[in-house]
Amino acid sequence: MISEPAEASSTSRIPNFFRMPIQARITALHERGLLTDADLRLLESGDHTLKRHVADKMIENVVGVLGLPLGLGLNFLINGRDYVVPLSVEEPSIVAGLSGAARTARLSGGFDAAATDPILIGQVQLVDAADPDRAAETLLAHKQDILDLANSLHLRMVARGGGARDLEVFRHHAPEDGREMTVLHLLVDTRDAMGANLVNGMCEGIAPLVESLTGGKVFLRILSNLTDRALVRASVRIPVENLAAKGFEGAAVRDGIILANDLARVDPYRAATHNKGIMNGVDAVAIATGNDFRAIEAAAHAYAARDGRYRGLTRWTRNSDGDLVGELDMPMKVGTVGGSLETNPTVRINHRLLGSPGATELAGVMGAVGLAQNYAALRALTTAGIQQNHMTLHARSVASAAEVPEGLFERVVEGLIESGEIKVWKARELAEAIGREPRAGAVADDAPTSSACGKVILLGEHAVVYGRSALAAPIPLAVEARISEAREGVHISIPRWGLEQRMPPADRHPDGAPGILATLLRRLELADRAMTIEIVPHVPRAMGLGGSASLAVAVLRALDAHYALGLADEEINAHAFQCEQAAHGRASGVDNTVATYGTPLLYRNRETPAFETVPAARCLPLVIGIGSQASLTAHTVRRVHAAWKDRPARYDAIFDQIESLTHAAVEAMRNGFLDDLGELMNLCHGHLNALQVSTPELEQMVHIARTNGAVGAKLTGGGGGGSIVALAPRARDRVGDALQAAGFETLSFDIE
Ligand code: MEV
Fold it and tell me: What is the pLDDT of residue 254?
């Protein structure tokens, strides 16, 4: 049986996780202690996947490695413990459906799950015994000898508390061959191992004894995938008030789920689809945890037909309080040691995400996931229907891709569905239209929202560290912030990053956003005021897009508005610069200046920093492609510095080249020569390549942008990960769509 954990693990509720960029999701997991530092680095660098040379040792004729999305099922509360569940699957809506079902289940205590001991059956087929009935009796009479022999072959499993436990014998008549068959079942407790090799080995090892005891001939010696001695039972209770859906009362949803389930109990055509849905969840965990999903599938379907008719694996009923009650019973023979767990780094991370469970605990989690999936599917089918569900999810992801601000999000999603035009451009159009409407309602909504720009370097990164110039442009509306009164203390709310916390005491020096805010409040002497600081970032963190400076400036402006501080731009810039220094140690000053003034500028830092604004004669349509790896700015700056120190003349020549391209770009911008500006960006990218700060992923994005009509595309910022910037005067949407189609997030905007 699944035992209760010694202590509760971290929570699996991460608000707005689905809206965060991938990088922020990884950071949120790390901040909650769900990922180790090493896991964080692997996921950030994209180095967590199975390597080709390892794959080559796993199967034959390897030519590559196939990727699958890895998502997380959130909100799972199983036996009173929180689980973040790794899911690897290609079908949309499964992860969202599971997280939604788990959220509903946790309102009434979550799932209960219990698994039997992990027994795997091995079969030994015996023929040609002179008297098959006698042979069966002899085998049973020598049960202990056979078990002892089997266990002597695997003493380590016995030492781990497992081993051959029991023996059963069956008789069959071979329909074609005509002979009588005696079949011995060896019942082996394989503990945390899946146990296939172990059981096959035992079956082969006992075969000579079986032959000598019976005088017959052993034929097959192999495990059975009908693993009905390793069962899981998961259950859940959902009160009707938690079942109501848009346009459907809770009681109607409950009765609909019971009726839908009844069809799967009696009709194999529906049962197959019903069980396929359950396996959507179960297989996704099996693949993510390196388990043999074909074995689990085989067991599930054979078990579903155990009474001679194929049926659904769940039961949904109503209890005396009128609550909906769901139960799932199915075989779940899984392993948490050995196999691909040892070879695939992602599988190892996934086990850690689950809290490194043993096999019976993992079986319980998978049972709960199967039941949650079935609930999600039946609920969707009995209410709006699967297609409508898919459409809502699609609309949400399109609204996210369009960077629709938090406060407008739900209305834009509704508008997209109503219009039937679920496109990024439509989401932006709706957001603009809704944003123009006067704001109604609650006090907090009346608090003025302040915003600040992010920055993108068009040309000059790295060279700027060596006294050359950089040309930077603003990313509009990168961060929004507002302040409202609170009863006591300072509350920080950044729902997009899943960050809701009280400001740590002044003597602790927090990192990240709380660190920036602590610096600001100290400098403005506001640390003892009670307030809520609400922040909505539209640019991801650690992507070289000036997110931290933008956050500082947006909050400064919000504090200025709320407390009527009368701060001038220069003061805002100076405060933000201090935050940057506190956060990054060595800040150039370009990020806070662009964030404050919101104009393109040429930045130079010979002895003292100097800025010059650069008006663009024509509108610059830009697309930022955001990669999956965080920008390693500090690392690449260090590497380039080491190379420069070794051979200063060689590297200074490159920095001079970049400098002259940057000045030419300023001229191109002033004159509105966008094709020329694009070409200069391309050339600059070539020099950044010479400095070896690009990555295959950045190259891929640059290539996609150029082949889809960008006149210029280059990495932006420190490199080693992070983002690219593309100038696309005639093809902004095409470039954005192509990058998104290749799986990258994008930001598209015009610099006027
Ligand atoms: C789709 O992958 C799974 C469903 O068809 C399951 C079901 O019908 O129960 C939605």
Answer: 96
The residues near 610 (Cβ < 8 Å, ≥ 6 apart) are 603, 604
CATH topology of domain 119-224: Alpha-Beta Plaits (3.30.70)
CATH 3.90.770.10 at 6-116+230-384, yes or no? yes
| Ligand 1 and 273: CB distance under 6 A | yes
Mean pLDDT of 165-173: 98
Task: Locate the domains of the chain by residue range.
Answer: 6-116+230-384, 119-224, 389-435, 450-751
pLDDT tens readout for residues 312-345: 999 999 999 999 999 999 999 999 998 767 789 9
pTM for this one?
Answer: 0.61
Q: May I ask the CATH class of domain 450-751?
A: alpha beta
Say whether 91 is catalytic: yes
Catalytic residue among 30, 142, 276, 491: 276
User: How much is the average pLDDT of 522-536?
Assistant: 91
For residue 123, give every residue at least 6 positions away whose Cβ sits within 8 Å of its Cβ, in sequence order, or none: 183, 184, 185, 186, 203, 220, 221, 222, 223, 224
What's the rounded Cα separation, in Å, for the pair 577 and 224? 67
Identify the residue whose C-alpha is closest to ligand 1 atom 7.
Answer: 274
- 365 CA distance to ligand 1 centroid (A)? 20
Ligand 1 center to 376 CA (angstroms): 9
Evaluate if residue 626 carries a pLDDT over 60.
yes
Q: Which residue has the higher pLDDT, 518 or 318?
A: 318
Report pLDDT for 615: 87
Residue 59 DSSP code: S
Q: What is the pLDDT of residue 402?
A: 82
Residues forming a β-bridge with 124: 184, 221
Residue 276, ligand 1, Cβ within 6 A: yes
Separation CA 229–CA 223 (nearest Å): 13
Give the pLDDT score at 21.
80
Return the pLDDT at 406.
Answer: 67
- For ligand 1, is residue 390 a contact (CB within 6 Å)? no
Q: How far, in Å, CA of 609 to CA of 33, rounded?
A: 40
Is 276 a catalytic site residue?
Answer: yes
Ligand 1: distance of its center to the CA of 295 in Å? 21
CB distance 740 to ligand 1 below 6 Å: no
For this structure, is 534 an active site residue? no
Does the beta carbon of 280 lie inside 6 Å of ligand 1? yes
Reduce the DSSP state of residue 455 to 3 states and report it. Answer: strand
